[in-house]
Amino acid sequence: MPNAILTAMNLTRHFKVGGSLFTRPKTLRAVEDVSLTVQKGETLAIVGESGCGKSTLARMLMRLIAPTSGQMTFEGRQIDQAEGRALTELRRDMQFIFQDPFSSLNPRMTVGRLVGEPLETHAPQLSGKDRRAKVGELLAQVGLRPEHGERYPHEFSGGQRQRIGIARALASGPKLIIGDEPVSALDVSVQAQVINLLADLRDRLGLTLVVIAHDLAVIRHMSDRVAVMYLGKVVEEGPTDEIFATPRHPYTMALLSAIPEAEYGRTRAQIPLTGEMPSPIDPPAGCRFHTRCPFAREACKQDVPALRDTGIAPGHRAACHFFEEIAAEGAMPLPTGGTGRSEAAKARFALYAEAIAGQKTRPRAQP
Amino acid sequence: MVATLVQNHISIEATPLLDVRALSLGFGASKTNLLEGVRYSVEAGETLCIVGESGCGKSVSSLAIMGLLRHDVAHIREADIRFRGEPYDLHDTAALRRHRGADIAMIFQEPMTSLNPAFRVGDQIAEAVRAHRNVTEAEANDRAVNMLRRVGIPAPEARVNEYPHQMSGGMRQRVMIAMALANDPALLIADEPTTALDVTIQSQILDLIRTLQAETGMGTIMITHDLGVVAEIADKVAVMYAGTIVEAGPAEAIFNDPQHPYTIGLMSSMPKLTGPRERLTTVPGTVPTIETMPDGCRFSTRCPFAQHVCKETPPERSFGAGHTALCHFAPLNERLERA
């Protein structure tokens, strides 16, 4: 593919857990046979519930951990076995934003040093003065002031700390940024600020983003393409609009139908998922989702489904033996009801959005 | 609207189950109150959602009502509260202890840390029963098994002997609910009960709370930051910002006819699952700290409509059917125009 910046083929990561002198360790199959392509300039979202392997996959893509098997290339270079200098260079081009802005910044370093630290490795030729200037620039880029560089992380709120984390990730001038739940620790109003910031930076700097998240609404706003993971495997992938409008895998449908929408009186029939995700130490045979799938049939217990084109949109694929039949049954419930906002409320929302965009308002003369 | 709100629960004239008429509270020596004039009520069978962001005081207000704040740190500056029509004294620790876990129960966000890892879950539920009822150990244990069955834990006879670490997050939250409901409380306070859970598990837990509420007729106060959860479960909503309730009313009014700029900003900031995927309108800035709390309207430092008058305490404006908002300029579309 001409525009692929990062490709992963048949990535697998197993962990050994437990075991002692007398017992064999068990194998935890965190990620199993995942193939992904990230196109230059796009935002790919990887979504799934806790324990689905999405963070392990992100750390593998970043080469923070090595895959058990499988290949990865970054801009055509093979990176799955990269070490030493090659890995350092890779880190310049690929950076990571962590979930928790409270524990991912060293509390004993000033913000200026935190943001300047990657420059020491990746741009050692810069003089101290140049480096400080660059740090000021980076802080301004994420909406902080250059003088914030002299403060310590504890002096900042969660949203501001996440901005510091982003400035630090931008320091080496990366082409690709991987964010592991970059906004999930933030409050709604601050989360929106950081979502907008990431979109702006992507457009301004021509970045490619890979975002790991569990919040589907956040993902819908941030991404161009989505990959849905369940128990270590990608069960569905495709363009964001198609994944949300015409999901094909029963797990994606269930996930979408489970999200309560912030609209009064809006309900949708849920696709009930019984029980919880099985352990990745002993995943079910056949389709890994069959133990919870309301549409499971006999074949699902034996045959492992492969990702197949759905024919809805290019690149929309689902790993389900029966997605055509399930879709034909009209399985995906549509939301219903809800009268929506009053006209006066709509006017207030418009007024608010304009005011945030800079429109000045004044009190109206009251009769 | 009020009539539909309380349909088949209780008549409008009845006394509310919990009536917080005024609650102000400060920490340490700070003169600024962390909670300022907090006011809400909940009736039997009704669900009130208190919604707000971290640090807005939504948890502190319920901890105060449960009597779980240390009096040497948290100073109650004003408290006028009725429970079942009777005065409810936040300084009477003995009375609070009698209420706590008996007719007022609470579940917390973290099912991992709010269970004791060293005791079997059955024993922890039985302990809650025996703390308030004069029953034998065997009766309390039976109650524990029954409660686990009611909250949908499979094979309760076996799982009653398990330790918390042997259970998943969703199961632990079910145990917490079983423990809270073991004494048939009249009021359940649930502080972010589903925040730590995955969405598919969250919907199971919300369904469970709703079912149990219908069975027992208890009143519920649900504290959450998730407007989706609010829309799903609330009869009434109180929107809290920086220690004050800035807007309150029936859920339908809050969602379809919000008045306060903060409520509007919060709803604008939410990424949506449907509709156009456009740039999000945000609430600029961050929540003020207790040291930087502005005079007058506490939202004025972040409000795009703030004027000089906002340095004065905003009036409570009423929009019918119990819908109120604290804002000088509500309704915005009538009191403001483009300059």
Describe the structure concisely for a colleague:
With 367 residues, chain A is of the alpha/beta class.
Characteristics:
heterodimer, A: 367 residues, alpha/beta, Rossmann fold, 2 domains, eight-stranded mixed sheet, four-stranded antiparallel sheet, 13 strands, globular, B: 339 residues, 12 helices, disordered N terminus, ATP hydrolysis activity (chain A)
What does this 3D model show about the protein?
The complex is a heterodimer of chains A (367) and B (339). By secondary structure, chain A is an alpha/beta fold. Chain A has two domains: 4-19 and 26-223, 3-Layer(aba) Sandwich (Rossmann fold); 233-328, no CATH class. Chain A has helices at 54-61, 84-93, 111-122, 128-141, 158-170, 188-205, 216-222, 240-245, 250-258, 323-328, 343-356, and strands spanning 4-17, 26-39, 43-47, 69-74, 77-78, 94-97, 176-180, 208-213, 225-230, 233-239, 308-309, 317-318, 361-363. In chain A, the strands form two sheets. An eight-stranded mixed β-sheet of chain A has the order 6-7-8-3-9-10-12-11, with helices on both faces. In chain A, helix 3 runs parallel beside helix 5 (158-170), helix 4 crosses helix 5 (158-170) and helix 5 (158-170) runs parallel beside helix 6 (188-205). The longest helix of chain A is centred in the middle third of the chain and has 18 residues, at 188-205. Chain A is globular and about 65 Å long. With 339 residues, chain B is of the alpha/beta class. Among the domains of chain B are: 112-184, no CATH class; 264-335, no CATH class. Chain B is built from twelve helices and 13 strands. Chain B has helices at 2-5, 58-66, 93-99, 121-132, 137-150, 156-159, 169-181, 199-216, 227-233, 251-256, 261-269, 332-335, and strands spanning 18-27, 35-42, 47-51, 74-83, 86-87, 104-107, 187-191, 219-224, 236-241, 244-250, 316-318, 324-326, 336-338. In chain B, the strands form two sheets. Chain B has an eight-stranded mixed β-sheet with strand order 6-7-8-3-9-10-12-11, sandwiched between helices. A four-stranded antiparallel β-sheet of chain B has the order 2-1-4-5, covered by helices on one side. In chain B, helix 8 links the parallel strand 7 (187-191) and strand 8. The radius of gyration of chain B is 21 Å and the shape is globular. The two termini of chain B are 36 Å apart. The model of chain B is unreliable at 1-12 (pLDDT under 50). Classes of the chains: A alpha/beta (367), B alpha/beta (339). At the A-B interface, helix 5, helix 6, helix 7, helix 8 and helix 9 of A face helix 7, helix 8, helix 9, helix 10 and helix 11 of B. Strand 13 of chain A pairs antiparallel with strand 13 of chain B, so a sheet runs across the interface.
